[in-house]
């Protein structure tokens, strides 16, 4: 499911605290296959998450989400998470997810805006987050055009391939 940067995306919220590390997000060292890992992602901090997460849900976290090693964040999106909104992210996790085209949003104050089970609206074009139940809002920082281009392409590799194909086609004219 691709994130719609041109529209409004809303989903059920799963809240997590500060410093959720990649061992919790992607516990590959305990399970032999990707299918097994998906059944256990985030289980260490919320055993209900892997059992109840649905396509289009949103993950909200505190500070330093994704700290630890450089494991991929794609497992969250593989289980249905449409986007992650956090107070802050580990720099390496943030960079890896943007490179993969996985939507992350930094939003100071998000932990006070929603709780698990709420519906959060991400209105990217207008730069705001809205708790649909309470009507409370927070500003949402948008990305510079270069980063938006990475997201629109589906990741840095897809962007590079597209540019290569365009340059190659232009050179053959």
Automatic annotation (TrEMBL):
SUPFAM superfamilies: LeuD/IlvD-like (SSF52016). Keywords: Lyase. PANTHER family: 3-ISOPROPYLMALATE DEHYDRATASE SMALL SUBUNIT 1, 3-ISOPROPYLMALATE DEHYDRATASE SMALL SUBUNIT 2-RELATED-RELATED. InterPro entries: Aconitase/3IPM_dehydase_swvl (IPR015928), AconitaseA/IPMdHydase_ssu_swvl (IPR000573), LeuD (IPR050075), LeuD_type2/HacB/DmdB (IPR011827). The keyword Lyase applies. This is 3-isopropylmalate dehydratase small subunit. Belongs to the LeuD family. LeuD type 2 subfamily. Residues 34-102 form the Aconitase A/isopropylmalate dehydratase small subunit swivel domain. The lineage of its organism: Bacteria, Pseudomonadati, Pseudomonadota, Betaproteobacteria, Burkholderiales.
